[in-house]
Amino acid sequence: MIRQEIPDTAPAPIPTIRDNYRFHLFLLTGQPLTLSRVVREQIVNQEWPEDVRVTVDVDAVNML
Fold it and tell me: Which residue has better confidence, 15 or 62?
């Protein structure tokens, strides 16, 4: 079991770019490698619409 914290939600710093909507989800954990693996596995196993792009960024430096 992964111990994690999901802080309050907030809009992306730039919520839309050229009519594309952007969302950020922040997950805080003491086990970043395990959480990253689980999140990536869940994303890969999802069927996303063609016009949806999902990115996982661990220890993001530039949030824009």
Answer: 15
Does the predicted model carry a pTM greater than 0.70? Answer: no
Determine the average pLDDT of the residues in 11-19: 81
User: What HEC string does the chain produce?
Assistant: CCCEECCCCCCCCCCEECCEECCCCCCEECCHHHHHHHHHHHHHCCCCCCCCCCCCCCCCCCCC
Q: Where are the domains of the chain?
A: 1-7+21-47
Q: How many Å apart are CA 2 and CA 4, to the nearest integer?
A: 6
Q: How many CA atoms lie within 13 A of 12 on its CB side?
A: 13
Q: Which amino acid is at 53?
A: R
1, two tokens: 């079991």
User: What is the C-alpha radius of gyration for the chain, rounded to an integer number of angstroms?
Assistant: 13
